[in-house]
Write a structure and sequence with these properties.
It is a single chain. This protein has twelve helices and nine strands. α4 packs antiparallel against α6.
Length: 432
């Protein structure tokens, strides 16, 4: 969870004092409203500049507005795990993949990860980048910013570290719903950026891209969003662009087996992945025009949960256990056998589980008016062959949701554990 940090510096927001009698000043001086409006075009810019300067000069030195709790929230860069995995969903997200430049290898990659780690630590603390900061986030606090780094399968070939490549990073199998664009898939390096402020998130994205310099070039980049914190009366599970509550049943850090399912153990192999995780990234297009033609009852049967509150169709609340054996008066299962929520349950997949932490996206419209929108699906697990793959294979065989989605891009990345103070992310791999 992001740390609350009341010691962060406050942002000054001087208030322009309102002058008494300002509303009727033109009447007192005998200047008519028409005459005043007539001269505005000639003098407005000058008056505006003078008024602003006077307002700042008149502001009392102690007239300071502290950051709201939203802006002051701060995640920690250094730690056992990298940030951006167990923190709450952020309102804005950017995913970006890089390929190392021709001729760049292990030395250049190490220097790049060192630069990136320095920048991430500073930005996550609400500080400017060390060099060439763009000032985009100058007025904001950290705003729950997290920056997460991972390595793709091809990274190990480019750096001569093939012997250190984890078996868990083997390419994902093909699935029937795949319509993958190779130009927007995979990559040597992957960076996930999340924040509760759009400018803070973009500022980080730009800083990371600038830091890449001549060592790496952008392969693909995607932008996402979630509901803003505080937009609902109380905290609740996110909704996706189909209007469904999305994230029910996620493993919780308080679960006794959470670490075992999500993170590589401290004594796992390879040793440089200790306390790390594997991220599966999928750009899943939602065929919203087709989905929205379904009735509410049909949509709920596809998912197996009520659209209003995410509760299972067998009753209760969002967190109520599904009764998979419950039937209706006709002897049919209340939760259909091909309902998405039934198929994805861990107990229906040999205990396979993953931590879903996704962003919605909307990239405009196709020429025929079809929305290019859906989910930037990101899931975390200790081993994708025991997490994502078995669940997706089962979905592939008969998920009622499959006709309404299309997987258009894919990536799998090894995300090492967090950097200790004085270390950079990936140092235990690159300097072994």
């Amino acid at each position: 969870m992001p740390d609350q940090n009341p010691s962060l510096p406050a942002t000054e927001r001087p208030r322009v004092p309102r002058q008494a009698g300002a509303d009727n000043g033109s009447a007192r001086t005998g200047v008519s409203r028409r005459r005043l409006l007539g001269t505005a075009g000639a003098t407005g810019l000058v008056l505006g500049a003078a008024g602003a300067a006077a307002g700042y000069a008149a502001a009392a030195p102690d007239d300071v507005t502290p950051l709201t709790s939203l802006g002051a929230r701060r995640a920690t860069f250094h730690g056992k795990h990298q940030p951006g995995i167990t923190e709450p969903l952020q309102a804005r997200g950017h995913l970006i993949a890089f390929d190392l430049a021709p001729g760049a290898g292990r030395t250049e990659a190490a220097a790049l990860l060192r630069r990136w780690s320095t920048t991430a630590e500073r930005l996550m603390a609400g500080e400017p980048a060390a060099h060439g900061d763009t000032d985009v986030a100058r007025d904001a606090g950290p705003s729950s910013l997290t920056i997460t780094f991972g390595f793709g399968h091809s990274f190990f070939d480019r750096t001569g570290l093939q012997k250190q490549r984890p078996a868990a990073l083997d390419p994902l199998p093909a699935f029937s719903s795949d319509r993958l664009d190779t130009a927007r898939s995979n990559g040597d390096l992957w960076v996930q950026i999340g924040a509760d402020d759009a400018l803070v998130a973009f500022h980080a994205l730009r800083a990371i891209q600038k830091d890449a310099g001549s060592a790496a070039r952008v392969r693909w980049q995607m932008n996402g969003f979630n509901r803003s914190p505080g937009a609902t009366a109380h905290p609740m599970t996110a909704r996706n662009l189909m209007g469904q509550v999305d994230g029910t049943g996620n493993p919780r850090p308080t679960d006794p087996d959470f670490d075992r399912r999500i993170f590589v153990p401290a004594d796992g192999t390879p040793s440089w992945m200790a306390n790390g995780s594997y991220a599966v990234v999928r750009r899943i297009r939602m065929l919203l025009d087709d989905w929205e033609k379904l009735s509410l009852a049909q949509q709920e049967n596809v998912i197996g949960r009520r659209k209003s509150d995410g509760a299972p169709l067998t009753g209760g609340t969002e967190t109520t256990e599904m009764d998979l054996e419950k039937t209706d008066r006709d002897g049919e299962y209340v939760i259909p056998v091909n309902a998405h929520a039934r198929i994805t349950r861990p107990d229906q997949n040999g205990g396979a589980a993953m931590l879903r932490r996704s962003f919605s996206y909307h990239d405009g419209y196709d020429p025929d008016g079809t929305p290019d929108a859906g989910l930037l699906f990101i899931c975390w697990q200790a081993d994708p062959l025991r997490g994502f793959v078995p669940v997706q294979r089962k979905l592939d065989r008969g998920d009622a949701l499959s006709p309404y989605i299309r997987h258009e891009a894919s990536g799998l990345f090894a995300v090492p554990g967090g950097a200790a103070k004085g270390e950079y992310v990936g140092q235990r791999l690159l300097e072994a």
